[in-house]
Amino acid sequence: SDYVVIDRVAKTYNPGSRQQVDAVTATSFSVKAGEFVTLLGPSGCGKSTLLMMVAGLDTPSTGTINVAGQPMAAPRAETGIMFQDPTLLPWKSALENVLFPFRAMNRPVAPFEGRAAQLLDQVGLAGFHDHKPRQLSGGMRQRVAICRALVYEPDLLLMDEPFSALDAITRDEMNLVLMKMWHDHRRTALFVTHSIREAVFLSDRVLVMSPRPGRVVEDVAIPFDRPRT
Ligand code: ADP
Ligand code: ADP
């Protein structure tokens, strides 16, 4: 069944002005429940714009986006998001950062401490729960961000080039961590990258985008069953 449905979506920034940008034009696609789909394309082709609209952090100029059968109106608590910059709170420990979504939603934190600790263990940070972000490497900080994105048990995971700022070796490690977590938790996932290698490694399906105007030009199923952990 289709979990995310993008129907003839277009996004124009600053319409009618000299700074007008047609960031996304006439784009339709859907993501099935449990599927891992990647938007692949060069810088400026509209990948982030599409992802932000699916997140409810931006609205289409025309067209509609449905998530879990509902038209997107506002950001949903059930959507987990990761960005290139993990934006951890520097004065809080890894564990407190993972639990931050509950604080931000003004919900009690204590009932979720066990789950947060378990997630950190799963990403290989068993000995680092009390470390502050500055005591962690870049890859470790993104591991914390994966846990934070999963702690609310989201049904949809959106990721905007989460590993692009990392060195190549750490990045490959993080792709393995992400696959393991995705395997264990089975969320519908929409991932953005400009790396063909990363897209093919991670995805069930790759949507290739081209810029000016930004649109999906190819929809490629990755046919073989890869080992994912
Ligand atoms: P990508 O994620 O593929 O690099 P983006 O979605 O960030 O692409 O950008 C698509 C196009 O829209 C680019 O030309 C970019 O400069 C433009 N753009 C993105 N955000 C804004 C904005 N807030 N205001 C004006 N133009 C924007
Ligand atoms: P980036 O997007 O940051 O360049 P990649 O993971 O795409 O990172 O690339 C890592 C290395 O693998 C680079 O040297 C790149 O040229 C190479 N590479 C990327 N995609 C392919 C591919 N499809 N086939 C062979 N080499 C690739």
Automatic annotation (TrEMBL):
Q: Keywords for this entry?
A: ATP-binding, Nucleotide-binding, Transport
SUPFAM superfamilies in the cross-refs: P-loop containing nucleoside triphosphate hydrolases
Which Pfam family, just one, is annotated for this protein?
ABC_tran
Q: What GO terms are given for molecular function?
A: ATP binding; ATP hydrolysis activity
At the top level, the lineage of the source is Bacteria
**Stretches assigned to the ABC transporter domain:** 4-229
Task: Tell me which InterPro entries the record gives.
Answer: AAA+_ATPase, ABC_transporter-like_ATP-bd, ABC_transporter-like_CS, ABC_transporter_ATP-bind, P-loop_NTPase
- PANTHER family assigned to the protein according to its UniProt record, in alphabetical order: ALIPHATIC SULFONATES IMPORT ATP-BINDING PROTEIN SSUB, TAURINE IMPORT ATP-BINDING PROTEIN-RELATED
Family, according to the entry, reads as follows:
Belongs to the ABC transporter superfamily.
User: What is the name of the protein in this document?
Assistant: NitT/TauT family transport system ATP-binding protein
